[in-house]
């Protein structure tokens, strides 16, 4: 396994919170997934679009992309447009900014064997900008205090600070499928302080397989999350509650349960999936057996079905208006807004109880309405 896999920037959120998890995860190889390949294809297309926008000699990769579709094309166009807007903005104070695509960034000064690839780095007098494209749809990624982005920024600073006299670091996550453009700005001094006082000491522990195990949100992509004892202990703290009717619990107890509920649910689901895979491989668990889940009826041959129904004098097809997401993918966001912007509205979302740190504004509850009246 390559050395850089041990303390990668992409997994830094995990090993910064749980240093010894790095070596444990390194002992288990990465599993290829459709999502990973889709992300790789999207990055390849983004690189091509941006190189083309910068009038660079480049080759269209579309025929080699396994997961290429209209949505990916639109996302890559949006990414290239966004980056070019940043370049033009920088030119107002620096006529010759350096724009680097898929740039190798070495931050081994702070992390043993630490390096990564920056999707786009814009270097100019005073400001260093690192832009990271995220094709994922499931998780909203924030640039604020994002350790992956900060590692990349340290690597970029090592390369270009002496040439351009950088004062400010600007980090942006561009996630078009979530309509998310998140930017975090900090001074060079703040970044270097984090690198020296936070990143470097913890990286040394992680590289040596030392430090304390810790469970939390960072467990999500850990390869050991299903069998990690620390995570089990963290979630089994809820076992001290008998889960009686809510009326028997006071507000403080409910708050404790709420603060752990999402992690508990995720942990239980991980355990169930892990146990299922082990059982399929022959492991026996007392009191459990493998059965077939619920199945649904499907057509063996859709063309034959259509012909048979048509011959019987019926219409086998339904006509349905594309949903907003599908229509946006078909038209592209810009054209969608031009044609349908005035015909789209957004219904209020279903009330959801979330931690206080969630960035969404609080809605009025019945109690607040009563107070206002």
Report on this model:
Residues 364-373 have a biased composition (Polar residues). Keywords: Hydrolase. This protein is an alpha+beta fold and 373 residues long. It has two domains: 3-208, Lambda Exonuclease, Chain A (Alpha-Beta Complex); 225-280, no CATH class. Helices cover 44% and strands 12% of the residues. It has twelve helices and five strands.
What's the helix and strand layout?
Blueprint: H1 12-17, H2 21-26, H3 34-53, H4 70-90, E1 98-106, E2 115-123, E3 126-133, H5 147-164, E4 166-175, E5 180-187, H6 188-208, H7 229-236, H8 251-280, H9 302-311, H10 324-331, H11 333-340, H12 366-372
Parallel strand pairs: 3-4
Antiparallel strand pairs: 1-2, 2-3, 4-5
Helix pairs in contact: 3-4, 5-6, 7-8, 10-11
What's a concise summary of this model?
GO terms for molecular function: hydrolase activity. The protein has 373 residues and is α+β, with helices and mostly antiparallel strands. It is 44% helix and 12% strand.
CATH topology heading of the largest domain: Lambda Exonuclease, Chain A
Q: Classify the helix fraction into a percent range.
A: 40-55%
Q: Percent of residues in beta strands?
A: 5-15%
CATH architectural group of the largest domain: Alpha-Beta Complex
**What is the number of helices?**
12
- The largest sheet has its strands arranged as 1-2-3-4-5
| Assembly state (oligomeric) | single chain
Number of domains: 2
Mean pLDDT: 87
Question: Looking at the structure, what is the overall shape?
Answer: globular
- Please give the largest β-sheet: 5 strands, mixed
Give me the strand/helix succession.
HHHHEEEHEEHHHHHHH
Amino-to-carboxy terminus distance = 65 Å
**In terms of structural class, how would the helical and strand content be classed?**
alpha+beta
| Low-confidence sequence ranges | none
| Beta strands, count | 5
Output the CATH class name of the largest domain.
Answer: Alpha Beta
Radius of gyration: 25 Å
């Amino acid at each position: 396994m390559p050395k850089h896999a041990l303390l990668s920037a992409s997994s830094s959120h995990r090993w910064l919170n749980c240093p010894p998890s790095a070596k444990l995860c390194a002992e288990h190889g990465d599993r290829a997934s459709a999502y990973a390949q889709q992300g790789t294809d999207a990055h390849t297309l983004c690189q091509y679009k941006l190189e083309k926008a910068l009038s660079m000699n480049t080759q269209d990769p579309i025929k080699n992309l396994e997961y290429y579709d209209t949505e990916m094309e639109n996302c890559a166009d949006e990414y290239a447009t966004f980056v070019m807007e940043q370049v033009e903005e920088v030119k107002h104070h620096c006529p010759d900014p350096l724009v680097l695509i898929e740039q190798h960034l070495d931050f081994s000064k702070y992390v043993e064997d630490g390096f990564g690839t920056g999707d786009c780095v814009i270097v100019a007098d005073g400001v260093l900008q690192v832009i990271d494209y995220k094709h994922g749809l499931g998780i909203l990624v924030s640039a604020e205090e994002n350790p992956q982005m900060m590692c990349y920024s340290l690597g970029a600073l090592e390369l270009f600070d002496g040439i351009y006299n950088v004062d400010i670091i600007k980090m942006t996550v561009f996630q078009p499928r979530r309509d998310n453009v998140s930017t975090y700005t900090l001074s060079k001094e703040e970044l270097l302080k984090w690198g020296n006082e936070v990143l470097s000491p913890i990286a040394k522990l992680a590289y040596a397989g030392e430090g304390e195990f810790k469970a939390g949100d960072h467990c999500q992509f850990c390869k050991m999350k299903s069998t990690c004892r620390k995570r089990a202990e963290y979630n089994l703290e809820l076992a001290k509650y008998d889960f009686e009717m809510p009326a028997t619990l006071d507000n403080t107890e409910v708050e404790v349960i709420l603060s752990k509920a999402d992690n508990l649910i995720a942990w239980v689901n991980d355990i169930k999936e892990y146990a299922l895979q082990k059982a399929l491989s022959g492991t026996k668990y007392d009191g459990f057996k493998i059965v077939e889940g619920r199945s649904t009826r499907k057509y063996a041959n859709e063309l034959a079905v259509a012909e048979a129904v048509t011959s019987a004098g019926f219409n086998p097809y339904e006509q349905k208006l594309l949903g907003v997401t599908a229509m946006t993918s078909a038209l592209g966001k810009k054209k969608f807004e031009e044609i349908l912007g005035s015909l789209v509205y957004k219904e209020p979302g279903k009330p959801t109880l979330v931690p206080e740190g969630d960035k969404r504004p609080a809605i009025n509850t019945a109690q607040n309405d009563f107070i206002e009246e």
